Amino acid sequence: MAQPKRAVVIGGGIGGLTAAAALHRRGLEVTVLERAPSLEPVGAAISLAPNSLRALDVIGLGDEIRDLAAWQGDGVLCTPSGRRLSRTDAAAAAERFGGPLVLLHRATLVTSLAACLPPGTVRTGVTATVADPGSVDRPARVSTPGGDLDADLVVAADGIHSAVRKTLFPDHPGAVYSGFTTWRVVIPLPDARFASHETWGRGRLWGSHPLKDGRVYAYAAATAPAGQRALDDERAELLRLYGDWHHPVPAILAAVRSEDVLRHDVHHLAPALPAFHRGRVALVGDAAHAMPPMLGQGGNQAIEDAIVLAHHRADLAAYTADRLPRTTAVARKSVRIARLNLLSNRAGIAVRDALIAGVSKAGPALLLRGFDGIADWRPPGPPYASVVSHPGTR
User: How many CA atoms lie within 13 A of 139 on its CB side?
Assistant: First the structure.
């Protein structure tokens, strides 16, 4: 395929916007089609590991995001009673993987990515489908209510239940339920004084992270049948499940309103797709490799996808060859970690907790080995490889 000149991105989330910014910096004319009425993300916070921060370096955003990060500190892993199992050493992690792990609100990242694009690039409130994936000698065609768009490259970043993925790979079974549901909240709690922590219980977990703007990001997960919802409201459900856990969980729940709580069942792709492209269409992010959130790599892998896709923009087979093995391995590990996190067998929990505590006493390096090959990834080009700005961008 000749060097593409025009790209259409379906989906204005983190993966789609990163791809749009990276392709724009490569000189492509880019259009982003987002079906939601605005780019305001539905969600809470996102953790970015050194691998995705280095990917953002390629489009000149890495340092900006590091500076905006709400949290870069240590953390602890606890039991529901508050007994500490291990400690996360931020300095050791940064030394091992070449940078920090940072936490920031998704809206902050989306705003920074959107600012990299010329005015008018993003069209919201637009539903788009792939009418023709194209071929070497034929452009792809994207259908919208306002008419069709031809493109040399189409980036499908339309999420876990991707319609484009179904069009490209109709025989793939799609996303399957991962066996648990999640809750997320971001609330003001200016007097909060506690260390970032994650707590593992019996078939349940909770995480709390203070943000530097006076808010707190908290999330929870629990094994549950697919589609199950609280009979009253989700805040009440959180109180039932976590109200007697250690400080600061009860204090956070006391400050939560029912409307603050987001609940979503978790799904992942199993088996992996046979490829991440067909014709002139490439899949990125959850559309390509949805995974449980336990490694915190869903958004990170989407950012990696976007940067690698821009690098291989004229050779989508190379993009698949680069990304499919890596993301498959990360996704499978995420599934395994989810099962470990949400064990419900008491004997298994006792063994798990004892092993974690023992490894932690041996030193932080042993715990960090779980991210070897993930957080130490580097993009296929030096940081700030794309340094030429274009009109309409900063």
Answer: 14
Over residues 126-139, the pLDDT tens digits come to 999 999 999 999 99
Exposed/middle/buried for 251, CB within 10 Å: 0-12, 13-18, 19+? middle
For residue 11, what are its two tokens?
A: 């989906």
**Pairing of β 29-34 and β 6-10:** parallel
Least confident of 27-36, 45-54, 205-214: 205-214
Mention every residue, 6+ apart, whose C-beta is less than 8 A from residue 113.
14, 17, 18, 20, 21, 61
Cite the beta strand spans of the chain per DSSP E: 6-10, 29-34, 45-48, 75-78, 84-88, 102-105, 122-124, 129-132, 140-144, 147-151, 153-156, 175-188, 196-200, 204-210, 215-223, 262-269, 277-278, 281-283
Alpha carbon distance 32, 10 (integer Å) = 6
pLDDT at residue 394 in the model = 41
Q: Which two tokens stand for residue 148?
A: 């069709």
72 vs 371, higher pLDDT: 371
- Would you say 282 and 316 are in contact if contact means Cβ atoms under 8 Å apart? yes
Other residues' Cβ atoms within 10 Å of the Cβ of residue 47: 20
